[in-house]
Automatic annotation (TrEMBL):
PANTHER family the record matches: BLR3430 PROTEIN (PTHR34075:SF5)
Organism, as annotated: Pseudofrankia inefficax (strain DSM 45817 / CECT 9037 / DDB 130130 / EuI1c) (Frankia inefficax)
Region listing for Disordered, in residue ranges: 147-180
Protein name in the entry: DUF35 domain-containing protein
Xref: InterPro entries: ChsH2_C, ChsH2_Znr, NA-bd_OB-fold, Thioester_dehydratase-like
Pfam family, one: zf-ChsH2
Length: 180
């Protein structure tokens, strides 16, 4: 079912189903990388530049020796927002959408979701660590606050486990507003 190494905490079990991304020749290695708990990013073997989204030719040196390389999985929140709209029927809002910049290279960013983190605790520059959610054959990279900050994270199966939408800051809920 799952590869070795991911059971120890890198695999997130959610109470909804994510849409599986299409696996193409160019992207399959990225989407399935998390099977062993590691994030892999396409990297030019000639000049060392990471390339995301994956592409077959290096944008820096035009080298064609591009290979998926394990990275630390560590990064920081570069920008983020609370999505309150039901874009994906199987994925109930609200949830946190973020651009995470990996520590390996300035500008190396992944569009992702933040999990195990209330919106009130997110800030630009927040250190985060990769984790993965299964979707079909894919392991979708997600991010959560780095260890030390994750003790309070909700366990799988807790229906209330999704991040609250900024309640602590008094922002109005979509369609709500009768809490006073
Ligand atoms: Zn290169």
């Amino acid at each position: 079912m799952t590869g070795p190494g991911i059971e120890g905490g890198a695999l997130v079990v959610e109470d909804f189903e994510r849409v599986a991304p299409p696996l193409t020749d160019r992207t399959a290695a990225f989407w399935t990388s998390g099977a062993d708990g590691l994030l892999r990013i396409a990297r030019c073997q000639d000049c060392g530049r990471y390339l995301h989204p994956p592409r077959p030719v290096c944008s820096a040196c035009q080298g064609r020796g591009v290979a998926f390389t394990p990275v630390s999985g560590r990064g920081t929140v570069w920008s983020w927002t609370v999505n309150r709209y039901g874009w994906v029927p199987s994925m109930p809002p609200p949830y946190l959408v973020a651009d995470v910049e990996l520590v390996e290279q300035p500008g190396l960013r992944l569009l992702t979701n933040l999990v195990d983190c209330p919106a009130a605790e997110v800030y630009v520059g927040l250190p985060v660590q990769v984790c993965f959610a299964r979707a079909g054959e894919a392991y979708i990279p997600l991010f959560r606050p780095e260890a030390g900050n994750a003790q309070g994270r909700p366990e799988a199966g807790n229906a209330q486990g999704r991040p609250e939408a900024g309640n602590a800051q008094g922002r109005p809920e979509a369609g709500g507003g009768d809490q006073r």
